[in-house]
Design the sequence.
């Protein structure tokens, strides 16, 4: 039973989220006391909040396989939550490091930017730990509302304003679909607890209502991960949002949405696997097809990475379609690797931003090898990882997905997944051609700030180390499977 004053043991279960919220509120208050040259303190405070949350989460790492429920069974701390919690914190820390110089160039360095990032992380962490429909929905909207504002953060940029408006309108529509599906589930089970809803679906009183709920919930969540045909918002939002926010939405939001997608489909909708396995298989194939083919014609790097992100969603969904241990481990590993390699790619785009130059067109990449050889080499590493070429983390992520499809006898999906690597190599190497083989059209040498250097070093270390020394990373992905989500 819920009480007004929870006991300390229960508060410890959400201490990582509490620290993030406290530091977010503190940044909002502190920002009024800082002068224009002291705004970097906000970023430092946000990093301290991430570290404090990480320490609290680390203390929960020894949680038992079955997890520890809290607050009347509305949240659970299990290995699944701990894994995704660290993933969210890592993505947040990387984007904070990449944002300081960018916001200085944009002359938009204010505390609410970092506070919104911490509040978004709070929502994502509750998404991964929530075992109640109300908690999941509130967490999802907390994350989404923060991203809506962050997308339109550049108030004087028409592209940013337009992207935020599109994101808000389409996001509200998807939330309506999701809450409708949740209401159908509540009507069938008389409860908002996931386990009780799953039990009710095993002996449904109607044949049509479970399918209606499944379709509505799937549509709402597939919008959040930008799967076809709910992907229309992604290219415009990726292009118009501030580039650090684009990186954040592309990795953190996607990981959080997949976390709740896995928990709902593997717990609540497990009795309907025969229905959703075919549905998700078709959506995954359509998503890979459209994402890869649309990326071939893009001349804007952020839009190209948006369509490639859509294609990656298709690959990750294939792990859920396979549904075996290898597939679920592959999903966890893929999301972990993708967070670092995709953030690294956007970090190079951020380096090209300077006063009067946005720096996100293919032409802006011309001759980067001569202007900043380090950035050009790192971009190649991130791109070959995104394409799934060894010796990078992206190759191992795709390997687990392919293996899971073969083990589950989804041979046709495995063939298409392999074939779609070819167009991916082509459009990623279009960027490489501009960086290495085209004459520089701009003599400016982009500089790397110390904070950006730390972020790029972390992204490179994981992108290469996750394959060259794969054992601890694979063990980390396997750890996530111990949670109740896959029991």
Sequence:
């Amino acid at each position: 039973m819920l009480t007004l004053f929870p006991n300390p043991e229960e508060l410890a279960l959400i201490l990582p989220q509490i620290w993030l919220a406290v530091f977010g509120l503190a940044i909002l208050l502190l920002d009024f006391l800082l002068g224009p040259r002291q705004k970097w303190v906000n970023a430092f405070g946000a990093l301290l909040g991430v570290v404090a949350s990480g320490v609290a989460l680390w203390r929960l790492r020894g949680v038992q396989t079955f997890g520890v429920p809290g607050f009347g069974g509305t949240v659970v701390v299990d290995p699944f939550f701990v894994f995704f919690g660290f993933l969210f914190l890592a993505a947040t820390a990387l984007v904070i490091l990449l944002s300081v110089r960018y916001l200085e160039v944009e002359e938009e360095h204010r505390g609410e930017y970092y506070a919104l990032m911490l509040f978004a992380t709070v929502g994502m962490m509750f998404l991964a730990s929530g075992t109640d429909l109300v908690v999941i929905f509130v967490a999802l909207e907390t994350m989404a509302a923060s991203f809506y504002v962050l997308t339109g953060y550049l108030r004087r940029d028409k592209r940013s304003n337009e992207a935020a408006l599109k994101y808000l309108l389409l996001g509200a529509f998807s939330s309506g679909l999701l809450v409708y599906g949740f209401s159908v589930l509540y009507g069938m089970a008389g409860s908002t607890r996931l386990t009780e809803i799953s039990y009710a679906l095993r002996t449904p009183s109607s044949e049509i209502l479970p399918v209606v709920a499944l379709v509505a919930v799937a549509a709402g969540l597939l919008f959040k991960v930008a799967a076809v045909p709910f992907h229309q918002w992604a290219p415009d939002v990726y292009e118009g949002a501030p580039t650090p926010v684009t990186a954040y939405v592309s990795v953190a939001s996607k990981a959080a949405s997949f976390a709740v997608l896995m928990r709902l489909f593997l717990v609540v909708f497990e009795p309907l696997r025969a229905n959703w396995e075919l549905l998700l298989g078709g959506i995954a194939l359509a998503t890979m097809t459209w994402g890869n083919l649309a990326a071939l014609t893009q001349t804007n790097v952020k839009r190209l990475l948006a369509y490639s992100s859509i294609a990656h969603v298709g690959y990750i969904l294939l792990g859920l379609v396979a549904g075996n241990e290898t597939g679920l481990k592959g999903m966890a590993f893929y999301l972990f690797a993708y967070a670092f390699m995709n953030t690294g790619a956007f970090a190079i785009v951020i380096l090209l931003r300077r006063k009067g130059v946005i720096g996100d067109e293919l032409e802006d990449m011309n001759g980067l090898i001569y202007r900043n050889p380090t950035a050009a080499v790192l971009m190649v590493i991130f791109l070959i990882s995104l394409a799934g070429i060894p010796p990078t983390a992206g190759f191992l992520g795709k390997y687990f997905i392919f293996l899971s499809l073969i083990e589950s006898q989804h041979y046709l999906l495995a063939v298409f997944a392999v074939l779609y690597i070819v167009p991916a190599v082509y459009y990623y190497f279009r960027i490489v051609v501009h960086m290495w083989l085209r004459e520089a059209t701009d003599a400016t040498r982009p500089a790397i700030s110390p904070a950006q250097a730390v972020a790029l070093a972390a992204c490179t270390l994981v992108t290469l180390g996750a394959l060259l020394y794969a054992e601890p990373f694979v063990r980390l992905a396997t750890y996530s499977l111990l949670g109740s989500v896959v029991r």
In short: The longest helix spans residues 158-189. The radius of gyration is 21 Å.
